[in-house]
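Notebook p. 47: complex prediction with heme C.
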Amino acid sequence: MVARGDRLYHGNTCVGCHGSNAEGTPLGPDLTKGKWLWGDGSLAAISRTITEGVANPKEHTGVMPPMGARSSLHPKSRHSPRISRR
Ligand code: HEC
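Predicted complex, structure tokens below:
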């Protein structure tokens, strides 16, 4: 689970805005310090942020695309083995 998340994070555009250690850049916030701008840091809140993206950031200049703009993360994608309905 963690390894898969790591692969997803680094193989994805997340790095560009949140930094390779998830410690943040001017474009996107630090995800490691336990301080959350969107929601309470619960899995549910974080999942919602990642699913919906952040169109109007509070403190950063990047605009976070839903699912990191990666189509294979999209629930309707046929390439996602985890959520495919088949
Ligand atoms: C184009 C830049 C960009 C990309 C790409 C991006 N993010 Fe973000 N992310 C942001 C911004 C901007 C915010 C909101 C910051 C604010 O409101 O000031 C944010 C917020 C978040 C939050 C909520 C942080 C909080 O404090 O509540 C999480 C979790 C998150 N991103 C995870 C991810 C993950 C995982 C990916 C890859 C799938 C990703 N982001 C890709 C820019 C980005």
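Notes: The chain has three helices and no strands. The two ends are 22 Å apart (CA to CA).
Next step: compare against the earlier run before touching the bench.
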